[in-house]
Input
Amino acid sequence: MTGMTTPAAVIVDAAAYAQAVEDATKASAAYYTGGTSVLDDDAYDRLVRGIAAWEAGHPEEVLPESPTGKVAGGAVDGDVPHTTAMLSLDNVFSPEEFTAWTTSLARRIDRDVTRFSVEPKLDGLAIAARYTRGRLTQLVTRGDGTAGEDVSHAIGTVEGLPTELAEPLTVEVRGEVLMTNAQFEYANTARTAHGGPPFANPRGASAGTLRAKDRPYTVPMTFFGYGLLATPGTGSALTVRLGELAHSDLMTLAGDLGVNTTATTAVPGVTVGTVEEVLTRVKEIAALRAELPFGIDGIVIKADLAADQRTAGSGSRAPRWAIAYKLPAVEKITRLLAVEWNVGRTGIIAPRGVLEPVEIDGATITYATLHNPGDITRRDLRLGDHVMVHRAGDVIPRVEAPVAHLRTGDEQPIVFPEVCPRCGAGIDTSEQRWRCENGRNCHLVAALSYAAGRDQLDIEGLGHTRVVQLVDAGLVKDLAGLFALTREQLLGLERMGETSTDNLLAAIVAAKRQPLSRVLCALGVRGTGRSMSRRIARHFATMDNIRAADADAMRQVEGIGTEKAPSIVAELAELAPLIDELAATGVNMAEPGATPPAPGADGAGGSAEDAEPTGGPLTGMSVVVTGAFPVKSFCSVRAAA
Ligand code: IVH
Output
């Protein structure tokens, strides 16, 4: 995560330096105006670091347009002067660099900073939102930091920026406008539907959308505030009041006024007292990055107290009291060479992009998901396209979008399959994700290997190769078939001796006693995995209750929303014959220790006391209990007769 910086670009002479400055300026202009640069963030950072290194050795030859001397984003001229300069931030890339920054800050202010605010660095565009007596009157982009462009036409399209504050204050809120992943999807759908080229990534999409005036459609964006200041000249009492507040208090005030801040996100801004605590929070935010519904490119650490900020002051480009701890780039541009169509264990036919290998955050990426056919069409992807590839954490890399302006005209359409590429059956295209009409039976080997896996039935000795043997020999036609295997059948297989046969049979018998959560997981219900299966099993306690649940009842399970619930219910209906077969072979259908939900709570099952114990370990048995018991009473002991 931390401490990994790609090397700076090497600049050997004045001509290379001039070229580098020109390339960086063009890239920066594209970045801030919604175009897509040929340089991704990482390449741009390396170039600027190379420029800075060369300038350090040739201070007399520094070009005025160099990106190092300017506020980032300076390539765009605007005509609305900023009340106070909209500064950029200096960067650090490792714990050591961050610690060195705190040391130099302490030296500068003559004391240790004892309160830092730590918040995500949102990957969008900086804007100033001006409120007059509580009404949102003007939106201005950062521009060159001293003046920006008026984008007030976007008022009303930016979530988190209310048109009216809770108090009639004349203030300026500064922050980042971005598109969440869902807003980005929508933006590209709307744009391509209107014949426009898709945006390559959410930041480009926000920049383009913010500046576009007469679009026949509206694309929502989201605002996160990170600064609040009084408008100079209007009410000096307010100026003084806000000027005295710590950054964290300003953010609380902004929230109280109705403005969105990072407080509402999964990675809210926090204040901490030590460098170690800052670094711990940096790690936490970095770890959550992949799951956030919007992009972040780092963590911003600020001296929280107004007095510390005042003493530290600001340079022409960036404040000295704040720093950006940059996280490794997660996006790179590469080429889409081919598309493969793979059938998964549930019969889903998923397109996967074959890429010109590209390194992202230390890993070489050669494949990236293309989600589904509809997505390919919406993004207007073509073979040979330069594409923006996104990889964060352990999440499967994805192709974000084509870089449309790099097209040469030689790109070819992506051909969709007409029959299942695995078994030749028809394809059900009625849903977003296409599916082989043979469903789970199309790729039985994958379905069975998954079911036997460690997190599911955990059948030792039933690895992929063995499953292939069983399926090829026609011994197993579905999951229930595993439990009907005989000793003779197994002994008849190649490389199956007596010991391995007996061990495998014992493991299969043991698998019948697995808790319901694992049995459910083994079924491979789409949209559920290990932890969701566990939650469902604990909630309903028995398979009968699960099967009796309608979408409303299913929604009562934590993490199952309105969209997922009906599809899980439908999947379970599809799996009904298989579940019946499994139950008939004696596979356990109850979750130990779980009590079914009370009636009326979600429409399924009864209270712990009322419930018929339909699937417990004593189901179907008559039990007689004798002897003396050191308890006062049995409240409700029943055994099904
Ligand atoms: S504070 C005077 N806080 O990152 C301090 N900036 O690369 C100004 N950014 O210009 C910035 N998230 O546009 C601050 N939580 C955050 C931020 C943030 C994103 C942007 C901002 C800034 C740029 C510098």
About this structure: The first helix runs from residue 14 to 33.
